[in-house]
């Protein structure tokens, strides 16, 4: 069975290609019609040097002018000499356009719509083949009947034909209006992608996830992936919303917690009149100990003020995390989650 190799380009486009255990990554990319930087093919020039962010592999013969021992220790590889021994994520130092890579397009049908929430719509679309992406990434989803697209993170696990999304019901929003009052099961929808550098890295230490509103979607994808690929490191999710009506997917979170003994989560509502046990902002209910003296990877997805608020909170408690990954969104920008 081939390994999945995620090629992450500088412009945020990701292509996931199959690569056999005895196959060079450069040859697998070429077979997929992706022209990653390449020249000598003999491990001599260094043109195909990339960074393997996760996964295991073997390297063939190469000279130090092409790849130094120090670079190899830091995870740099020559794709003309690299053979995977697991799934891998490889950062390509070029744009997808420079590599003549077409963004993958998919035609799907709406299979489920949930309009129970007053402020949020969740829905599932069915693709004719499994869709590979990195948990946390997004796609540009076409609004039926228009030429417009909107960016949404998957709320479902990778490598499935069932693809879930969670969107904010924005007044007069193009996609949210369609999903709230017009969409029906069986409707055709299309999307391109996946995109984005906000995705789950290898879990090698505790993880702190902070979600604002429908910024919960990519974390659901990450947690579903972790459910199938368990880790013993602790995972904490802090999920904040504005009002009681905005609090969704609690059944899904409770089911994940029941299946994952290392997962803890709590919810926070900004509105002080909500009667919720925790009011205010998520950072009001975190402490320095949640940053594990810096031995933690922090992920934040929410509106820009939330992301900046988390930065200030970390600075205020005087702890710098091992890594800090974030995705900002609003109702008027790409990644709107509208």
UniProtKB/TrEMBL annotation:
One of its GO terms (molecular function) is 2 iron, 2 sulfur cluster binding. Residues 103-201 form the FAD-binding FR-type domain. Residues 3-96 form the 2Fe-2S ferredoxin-type domain. InterPro entries: 2Fe-2S_ferredoxin-like_sf, 2Fe-2S_ferredoxin-type, 2Fe2S_fd_BS, BenC-like_FAD_NAD-bd, Beta-grasp_dom_sf, Cbr1-like_FAD-bd_dom, FAD-bd_FR_type, Flavoprot_Pyr_Nucl_cyt_Rdtase. Keywords: 2Fe-2S, Iron, Iron-sulfur, Metal-binding. It holds the Pfam family NAD_binding_1. The keyword Iron applies. Its cofactor is FAD; [2Fe-2S] cluster. PANTHER family: NADH OXIDOREDUCTASE HCR, PROTEIN RFBI. This is NADH oxidase. It comes from Zoogloea ramigera. The gene is benC.
């Amino acid at each position: 069975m081939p390994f999945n190799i995620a090629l992450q380009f500088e412009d945020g486009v990701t292509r996931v290609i199959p690569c056999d255990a005895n196959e060079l990554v450069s040859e697998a990319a070429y077979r997929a019609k992706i022209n990653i930087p390449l020249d000598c093919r003999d491990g001599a020039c260094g043109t195909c040097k990339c960074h393997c962010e996760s996964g295991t592999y073997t390297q063939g013969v190469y000279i130090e002018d092409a790849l130094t021992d120090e670079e190899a220790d830091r995870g740099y590889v020559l794709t003309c000499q690299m053979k995977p021994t697991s799934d891998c994520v490889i950062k390509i130092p070029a744009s997808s356009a420079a590599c003549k890579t077409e963004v993958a397009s998919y035609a799907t049908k709406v299979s489920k719509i949930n309009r129970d929430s007053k402020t949020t719509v969740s829905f599932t679309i069915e693709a004719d083949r499994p869709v590979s992406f990195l948990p946390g990434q997004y796609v540009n989803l076409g609004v039926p009947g228009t030429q417009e697209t909107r960016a949404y993170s998957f709320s479902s696990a990778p490598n499935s034909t069932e693809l879930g999304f969670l969107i904010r019901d924005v007044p007069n929003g193009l996609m949210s209006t369609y999903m709230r009052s017009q969409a029906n099961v069986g409707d055709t929808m299309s999307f391109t992608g996946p995109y984005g550098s906000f995705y789950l890295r290898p879990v090698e230490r505790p993880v702190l996830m902070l979600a604002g509103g429908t910024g919960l979607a990519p974390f659901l994808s990450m947690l579903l992936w972790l459910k199938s690929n368990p880790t013993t490191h602790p995972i904490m999710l802090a999920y904040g919303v504005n009002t009681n009506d905005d609090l969704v997917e609690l059944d899904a979170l409770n089911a994940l917690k029941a299946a994952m003994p290392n997962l803890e989560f709590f919810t926070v509502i900004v509105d002080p009149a909500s009667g919720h046990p925790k009011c205010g902002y998520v950072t009001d209910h975190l402490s320095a100990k949640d940053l594990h003296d810096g031995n933690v990877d922090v992920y934040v997805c929410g509106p820009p003020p939330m992301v900046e608020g988390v930065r200030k909170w970390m600075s205020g408690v005087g702890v710098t995390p091992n890594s800090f990954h974030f995705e900002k969104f609003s109702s008027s920008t790409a990644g709107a989650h509208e």
